[in-house]
């Protein structure tokens, strides 16, 4: 079976990270011929393996008619069975020619506007129950809405020497407890709430200094840096910028925090679990989908830095044994429900069913 996978993003985010994992994994699945379609020079294109067939389409905006024509020609030339699009721009620009037999699958990772962007597809994938319920409420036919979760790859080990070098590079003491968070620096990710919560925590826990590490970039970069200074926590907060390789940073950390105000699923929670980190998250739709409170993670109200600080203080005081228990339960969740084989298998089964119709 041949499938085209079209994404129009230039920067990296959750959807792009999933794309960069899923498309190569699908290409390695028996009987699957995969073509990646990205914007030339896009960051997601740089994450794909060199042996994967790739095509470039500008997709400059959601109104790029030249790209509509380019995609139609690509479909006509390659004759795929499935055309899967990711995010609004790629989906809006993809219009299957009437002469083609391809099935258009739109994959959504958020509660986006349907009309004008997604309704013209033939089938839709949501990565959570809440998202699939939303798609059906918006009038999409339930029999063509599929719930398929995300997966994360098991991380490679990080040498202790590299972790030591990173601590030295970022001026983090060897005995420091490291709280870690990552994502786009945009309002819905809740980093301002995280900074307030961190400012309410003691500087030391059990005699060990407490540090906050945030990896990511975005329009709030300057504002958040100013907030850090205003809260007088700049000396123990580290801003790493966007990281192409996050595994060493996960392995540097002791506890992962997802402070989002809105998160349809939360790939970062899965990634933290895969790296065997305990997770503290706000009570988003995505967190409720993944976390069983007090079992594989801890959940606090969104937009409440005081509650987040209290939860972190309790977990930090409980010590490494409690951290390890949460981390192991999270790792078990990933192995049982969010493995590569399980998720890719669900997509292939969906493709086969759609093509047979």
Automatic annotation (TrEMBL):
Do you know which InterPro entries this protein is assigned to?
Glyco_trans_1, Glyco_trans_4-like_N
**Domain Glycosyl transferase family: where?**
166-321
Q: Which residues form the Glycosyltransferase subfamily 4-like N-terminal domain?
A: 13-153
Q: What class of enzyme is it?
A: transferase
Q: Name one GO molecular function term.
A: glycosyltransferase activity
Can you name this protein?
Glycosyltransferase
Pfam families according to UniProt: Glyco_transf_4, Glycos_transf_1
From which domain of life does this come? Answer: Bacteria
| Leader sequence segment | none
Entry EC number(s): 2.4.-.-
Name the source organism: Thauera sinica
Q: Which positions, given as ranges, span the membrane?
A: none
Name the UniProt key words of this record, in alphabetical order: Glycosyltransferase, Transferase
């Amino acid at each position: 079976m041949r499938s085209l996978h079209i994404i129009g993003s230039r920067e990296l985010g959750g959807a792009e990270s999933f794309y960069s994992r899923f498309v190569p994994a699908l290409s390695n699945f028996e009987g699957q011929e995969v073509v990646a379609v990205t914007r030339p020079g896009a960051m997601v294109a740089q994450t794909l393996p060199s042996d994967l067939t790739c095509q470039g389409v500008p997709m400059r905006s959601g109104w790029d008619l030249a790209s509509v024509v380019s995609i139609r020609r690509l479909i006509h030339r390659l004759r795929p069975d499935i055309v899967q699009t990711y995010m609004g721009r790629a989906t809006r620009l993809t219009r299957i020619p009437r002469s083609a037999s391809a099935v258009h699958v739109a994959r959504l990772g958020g509660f986006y506007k349907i009309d004008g962007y997604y309704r013209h597809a033939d089938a839709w994938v949501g990565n959570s129950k809440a998202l699939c319920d939303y798609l059906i409420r918006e009038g999409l036919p339930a029999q063509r809405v599929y719930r398929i979760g995300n997966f994360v790859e098991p991380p490679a080990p990080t040498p202790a020497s590299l972790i030591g070098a990173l601590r030295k590079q970022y001026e983090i003491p060897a005995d420091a407890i490291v709280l870690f968070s990552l994502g786009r620096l945009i309002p819905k990710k809740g980093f301002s709430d995280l900074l307030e919560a961190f400012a309410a925590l003691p500087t030391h826990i059990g005699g060990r200094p407490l540090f906050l590490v945030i990896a990511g970039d975005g329009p709030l970069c300057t504002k958040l840096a100013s907030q850090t200074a205003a809260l007088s926590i700049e000396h123990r907060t580290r801003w790493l910028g966007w990281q192409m390789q996050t595994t060493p940073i996960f392995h540097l950390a002791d506890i992962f925090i997802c402070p989002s105000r809105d998160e349809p699923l939360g790939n970062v929670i899965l990634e933290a679990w895969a790296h065997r980190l305990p997770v503290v998250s706000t009570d988003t739709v995505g967190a409720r989908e993944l976390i069983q409170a007090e079992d594989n993670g801890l959940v606090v109200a969104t937009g409440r830095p005081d509650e987040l600080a209290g939860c972190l203080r309790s977990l930090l005081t409980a010590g490494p044994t409690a951290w390890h228990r949460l981390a192991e339960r999270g790792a078990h969740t990933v192995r049982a429900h969010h493995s590569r084989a399980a998720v890719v298998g669900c997509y292939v089964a969906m493709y086969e069913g759609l093509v047979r119709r």
